[in-house]
Write a structure and sequence with these properties.
Helix 1 crosses helix 2 and helix 10 runs antiparallel to helix 12. The longest helix is centred in the C-terminal third of the chain and has 17 residues. The protein has one domain: Aldolase class I (TIM Barrel, Alpha-Beta Barrel). About 45% of the residues lie in helices and about 15% in strands. With about 290 residues, it is of the alpha/beta class. Helix 3 links the parallel strand 3 and strand 4. It contains twelve helices and eight strands. Strands 1-2-3-4-5-6-7-8 form an eight-stranded parallel β-barrel, surrounded by five helices. This is 4-hydroxy-tetrahydrodipicolinate synthase. Catalyzes the condensation of (S)-aspartate-beta-semialdehyde [(S)-ASA] and pyruvate to 4-hydroxy-tetrahydrodipicolinate (HTPA). Its EC number is 4.3.3.7.
Length: about 290
């Protein structure tokens, strides 16, 4: 699997909410030019929850085509319906995605056995696709326990997990328990450096949207065990790691990219543009981190 910075890419939109394909192309090129190691297409930050299935697949295909093999593309294909997740994963596999990202089912709150059977069913239905599990209980209201991940590690094409719990002791316990059977990635920018220094292989990052070069350098240093350099870069990026979450992701990061002149200001309801009271805070974080 990939080592380093995997950007959880936003989906640029016109003011109407339609996908802005030209800006999406520019973002892909921006990340490749600035050292991002891989792109996660149409995940949470890409507003997967409000893209219809046709748009979802179209966006994944568009990104794969633009990347043209220059870096890996991981397609967000999860859902709270196992059938839907299988369909999305199969389509992404046909399009040539290097792997898929499968979020823990949200809202319906399955048991741990239900989670195991959900991911097992997807793996068996699309055996040629490498799969990255995604545990983010703060959004899904369903926490996949380490013991369930250890069970899933026995399935051949489940190869990684994005751990967005932000719980470092738990993450270290998972890394040690897996003993290399799955690659572990952070999904929490504020604690990512610490988890990588403890053995994680990279970070699926929101902050990388606006600071791709610095995040790439941070991940390289942390994965290599260079604690001093990782700490320096982590301190530089910490204002963004906090202020890009003053409202629900991807509201602040889309505003930040618009402020940087990289995308239009479109976002889909029920998400709304960043509240004006937070504009100065996010702009200051961009300046403090050397982005503006």
């Amino acid at each position: 699997m990939i080592t380093g910075s995997l950007v959880a890419l936003v989906t640029p939109m016109h003011a109407s909410g339609d996908i802005h394909w030209e800006e999406l192309d520019r973002l892909v090129d921006f990340h490749i030019e600035n050292g991002t190691h891989g792109i996660v297409a149409v995940g949470t930050t890409g507003e997967s929850a409000t893209l219809d299935p046709e748009e979802h697949i179209q966006a994944i295909g568009h990104i794969i085509k633009r990347v043209a093999g220059r870096i890996p593309v991981i397609a967000g294909t999860g859902g709270n319906s196992t059938r839907e997740a299988i369909e999305l994963t199969a389509e992404a596999h046909k399009l040539g995605a290097d792997a898929c990202l499968l979020v823990v089912p949200y809202y319906n709150k399955p048991t741990q056995e239900g989670l195991y059977q959900h991911f097992k069913a997807i793996a068996e239905a699309v055996p040629g696709m490498k799969q990255m599990l995604y545990n983010v209980p703060g959004r899904t209201s369903c926490d996949m326990l380490n013991e369930t991940v250890l069970r899933l590690a026995d399935i051949e094409n489940i190869v990684a997990i994005k751990d967005a719990t932000g719980n470092i002791p738990r993450g270290i316990e998972l890394i040690e328990g897996l003993n290399g059977r799955l690659a572990v990635y952070s999904g929490d920018d504020a604690t990512a450096a610490e988890l990588m220094l403890a053995g994680a292989q990279g970070n699926v990052s929101v902050t990388a949207n606006v600071a791709p070069k610095a995040m790439s350098q941070l991940c390289e240093a942390a994965v290599a065990g260079d604690r001093e350099e990782a700490a320096r870069l982590n301190e530089q990026l910490m204002p963004l790691n906090h202020k890009l979450f003053v409202e629900a992701n991807p509201i602040p990061v889309k505003w930040a990219l618009h402020r940087m002149g990289l995308i239009s200001d479109g976002i889909r309801l029920p998400l709304t543009p960043l509240s004006e009271k937070f504009h100065a805070e996010v702009e200051e974080a961009l300046k403090a981190s050397g982005v503006l």
